[in-house]
Amino acid sequence: MIYLNDNYLELPGSYLFSEIAKRVRTYREAHPEAEIISLGIGDVTQPLPPAVIDALHKATDEMAHIETMRGYAPEQGYEFLRNTIAEHDFRARGIDIDPSEIFVSDGAKSDTGNIGDILGVNNKIAVTDPVYPVYVDTNAMAGRLGSFLGNVWEKLVYLPCTAENNFIPELPSEPVNVVYLCYPNNPTGTTLTKTQLKEWVDYALRHNVLLMFDAAYEAFIAEDEVPHSIYEIEGARQVAIEFRSFSKTAGFTGLRCGYTVVPKDLAAQSQKGAKAPLNSLWMRRQTTKFNGTAYIVQRAAEAVYSPEGKKQVREIINYYMDNARIIKKGVESLGLAAYGGVNSPYVWVKTPNNMPSWNFFDYLLTEKQIVGTPGSGFGKSGEGYIRFSAFGKKDATQKAVALF
Ligand code: MLT
């Protein structure tokens, strides 16, 4: 007999973006002539910055010579990249993060999904709702969420974020152990100010709660009061893990690189009451299950921080944020309420006449050949919304908006 992980049987349907891809494929097969514009999954369309391409070529050449070739990369990431990250993403903002607290990986999706490996199954989890589905599905796979009861998980605490509360989640009203926060937010594109995020850090310090802070969209922040890192808030080193990604920042969705910060101040408790630092546990997990991000990719990531790299990345981000403005203006001109799109590449839109999200998705696909991401796919509170991504090509984005 082979026993499976029963938790997988609780998972509803397929992963959100696989389901969307399936529906688009079906439509495309039936209408091969249709020109479909994707404002769906947040996948980049602009080429990698030239500084990144140069670094890739150079590192590839190094791999061709016996003197400079590299084998296994250090599981935590090469020191050259961790030092560069610590310097540019943290010290330059007055934040004290040591390179030994940085773990380079193949992206924030893997890290936010894998981090649960070092946490006990009895932790009570809270998520904002709507939410990036990886946090939920991976906790369900680990057996922390109980059964799926139609549209909510039995043991998951939901923190609704809707237009009614300005997309600001309230602190949990029941005891929880771990809270996932993603800011700038995927999917709503909204943000928390420093003062609002401080409330979360203070709450976590008061109640001994771990904050999983996903900052994958940090590079899109335009407003001063929006924090780039949770460690800008005093005390966060004792309560927060932060996830970062080069995917959206520098077009690495196909190249794969991200990193996770696990401060040495963070500790958790065993069932028997013994305390252990999460930094060592994550190191243990990574060294066992991960063989490091490719050398050439880490050199490419390093190039993102060079003066030319920074300039080129900024141009690409400006290009996408221009798309966000085009989308937002377009939907607002139709009288639809739209959120986000200012510090984030996502525009979160109220469907017309409260149409259910999937119905609006189907309508846009079949009548307009435009793909969005149905809000309800991100959770119950996303019902009646649709998300548009600004990562498309400008002409396609303009065309989509004209078709709206
Ligand atoms: C999204 O569209 O939400 C993202 O592209 C998904 C991801 O980053 O995995």
Overview of this protein structure:
The chain has 404 residues and is an alpha/beta fold. The chain folds into two domains: 12-47 and 308-403, Aspartate Aminotransferase, domain 1, CATH 3.90.1150.10; 57-305, Aspartate Aminotransferase, domain 2. The chain has helices spanning 7-10, 16-30, 50-62, 79-90, 108-114, 133-141, 194-207, 247-250, 278-289, 295-303, 307-333, 357-368, 394-403, and strands at residues 37-38, 102-105, 125-129, 157-160, 178-182, 210-214, 240-245, 258-261, 267-269, 275-277, 338-340, 346-350, 370-371, 373-374, 385-389. Strands 2-8-7-6-5-3-4 form a seven-stranded mixed β-sheet, sandwiched between helices. The chain has a four-stranded antiparallel β-sheet with strand order 11-12-15-14. It is globular. The mean pLDDT is 96.
Topology:
Elements: H1 7-10, H2 16-30, E1 37-38, H3 50-62, H4 79-90, E2 102-105, H5 108-114, E3 125-129, H6 133-141, E4 157-160, E5 178-182, H7 194-207, E6 210-214, E7 240-245, H8 247-250, E8 258-261, E9 267-269, E10 275-277, H9 278-289, H10 295-303, H11 307-333, E11 338-340, E12 346-350, H12 357-368, E13 370-371, E14 373-374, E15 385-389, H13 394-403
Parallel strand pairs: 1-13, 3-4, 3-5, 5-6, 6-7
Antiparallel strand pairs: 2-8, 7-8, 9-10, 11-12, 12-15, 14-15
Helix pairs in contact: 3-10, 4-10, 5-6, 11-13
Bound molecules: D-malate (MLT).
D-malate binds at residues 41-43, 109, 186.
